[in-house]
Design brief:
The complex is a heterodimer of chains A (about 325) and B (about 280). Chain A is an alpha/beta fold and about 325 residues long. Helix content of chain A is about 40%, strand content about 20%. In chain A, β13, α11 and β14 form a beta-alpha-beta unit. The two termini of chain A are about 35 Å apart. The relative contact order of chain B is 0.17. The chains are: A alpha/beta (about 325), B alpha/beta (about 280).
Chain lengths: ~325, ~280
Amino acid sequence: MSTTRPVGRATRDAYGDVLVALGAQREDVVVLDADLSGSTRSGKFAAAYPERFFNVGICEANLVGVAAGLAGAGKTAFISSFSSFLLCKGFDQLRMAVAYPRENVKIIGTHGGITLGEDGASQMSIEDFALALGLPGVVVCHPADDASALQLLTQIAAADGPAYVRLGREKAPTIYGEGQSVELGRAEVLRGGDDLTIVANGMMLGLALDAAEQLAAQGVQARVIDVHTLRPLDEATLAAAARETGALVVVEEHLRVAGLGSVVAQAVVQHAPAPMRFVGLDGYAESGSPSALLAKYGLTCEAIVGAAQEVLAAKR
Amino acid sequence: MSPKLTQAECAEMCVRIRRHIIEMIHAAGSGHPGGSLSATELVTALYFHFLRQDPQHADAPDRDRFILSKGHGVPVQYAAMAERGYFPIADLTTLRHIDSRLEGHPVKGTLPGIEASTGALGQGLSIACGHALAGRLDGRDFITYCLLGDGEINEGQVWEAALFAAHQRLERLVAIVDANHIQLDGYTADILDTEPLVDKWRSFGWNVIEIDGNDLAQVFAAYEAAGANLGRPFCIIARTIKGKGVSFMENSVAWHGVAPDAEQTAAALAEIGEAR
């Protein structure tokens, strides 16, 4: 996907696998879906543990409420749908029935961002992190690839309390090597460098790493950090990066307001103010192939390199 | 567990509960007397005869659940809970004050026995479905009761939950609709008519019974029927009088959400009378 890196499975495929593994290990795990279980991959759990799977139909508000009740009665409830439907249609229920009472509900939104492609803007979530971050106390996470999704989803299942995870439809570029450990709440420095920092997550990491290689060819060493966990945010790693590199670019497949860029900027401003630039979306996209959409809406290697050059100029 | 008051004793308890409702809303200076007074018999019969709960073991996995979906009616629940021993009766007049556990609408975690945070209308029945589902998964026989308002069921989520409960055949789930015919802005018939209630719930796949919800004998009979219910979820359409027991509040839109002043409080208490 607009990157030369090898691609692995889509992160939603990791979700299906984690659910099936959890089903075998834990009797308390229940899974609910709103008529998208084939797409979200929760259908894998449904096939293995039909008595603990509930398809509520196309009723996202009820989906969230029923899960909250199950959690209130001691279950660990995973709910999945497209991230746009789950967050937008279920938001008041997430607020009142999940976040406020801190129920153990895991909110899994697949088909995040614009890279779901041809189905168009109605299905695309460009505001899901803004909404999820508006739910106090809810963990917010966005794994980049298969290996990190498997680890992060497993860790989220093991931790008590509500969490939101955005997963993708498309096959994701491979970021993490075999055996490389990823920890919820710990930002991963994927590439060293002291001239500037590129912060990204999800599908944007492949592009960020490509941009770092292009910059290296120009003699600029960029540090690349995967902030897969937006909350709790690894402020220490970001503060160190701001201090040591003095300039940051944040790249996200989300609106440029109230998402990754905003939380990173808040941390940087408090700990080590530095010039920043933001690569992200400013509005609704449209139908098209994922790579065509990324190109048209400015989520490209070139855009990241351009933002890096700008922020380097501001630093001097 | 439940003290199992007789019907006659429950009638006396209703007097005490109504007095608490008036006194606590007066002390708060705001609140919703109408919908608490309409539901007094419905809630009192549950807490003092039917609900298998022990305030000392409020988290017992086998407990019956009571979820107040019409969260603005929480004074009647607090009053019943205090009388049942969940917390001191003296705390009732801290309703809506800073640092009180008695929030203006129910908040899970503030008091044992509050199962859900409600007040954003339309959400309780979904949560009740979740509890009922968990009970069936775990092979427990508890009953989940959910009290809704006839204005509240304007909310579409209620009907999502109604479809779901029937589809899942949640026979240990009881929805009680406090049909007092009034919502905040006026009569439900004028704002958004939810009638015919019995036909609607029946057509959604529920077993339905229609009663006078301010008549304790009918309320007892309805809960007995709910306990013996089989096959489908059970709905009680309870025809009630908003503001029941205080003549100047009865059937009054104006008394949906205002607190009585000192003079009105005295007049209301005089009408309600003293419990024997």
